Input
Amino acid sequence: MRKTVFYGLLAATLVVGLVLAGCQTEPDTPIVETFNGVGATGEEFVLTITDGSAFVFVIDGNTVSGTAQFVNGIWVLTITSGGSGTLEVGVDGSGGITDIDGNATVEGGNDIDGPVVVAPPPTLPPGTGNDPFSGTWEALVADPPPDAHRIVASNGSFSQYVVSEVPPRGEFIRGTYTVSGNTVTITIIEVDMSVMGGGGDANWVAWAGLVEELKDWFGGSQTTSVTISGNEFTIPFAGGMTFTRQSP
Output
């Protein structure tokens, strides 16, 4: 019975890993900071800090997570999932990673042992409207009303919430995004399985830790792209759901 409820919720709410939700009373919005960098040989780094104490670090496609502490201008990361070890990550005020040091074992490869040559990624090209994805987006769900999917995005990070009068509801997906013109490429960082599974205490699981069956609901890939047209974009999953901008 619980499995039936779980997959019923998936069918109604999974939309490319970006739907956001709440309820009649909006859930608390966590403080999320995202930093990006590119290694000397092209490897990509995406660091997401939540509420100044937890992190998810995508190291060229492999994800580690754990606790974070900001010490003397450096994020000190203690890995508790997806690998082991400690890293020190320097960042700048524009969301770039300036340096990485430490020793970490990463499941799937991309271990770090000592300093890594890294630079912030290039800024968005002119004419992109700065960030066409930034803001609040909403898509109504036909059954049952008045449930909706809501996306809140800014500064390269997004959260997805289930908006419903009854549980399970709240934030259940966190991720990052990049912009090229009107095309937005979204990367799912972690999923709260408590919302996906019917309630209870928060249980955030990094993408690498999701079962294949659940990954398939997101198209089988951690990343996906959508094209913004005016104040709308359509996701080709869940029957082609269309999101409309609610605020800039």
Observations:
- The first helix runs from residue 2 to 13.
- The chain is about 10% helix and 50% strand.
- The helical segments are 2-13, 193-197, 212-217.
- Residues 138 and 246 are 7 Å apart (CA to CA).
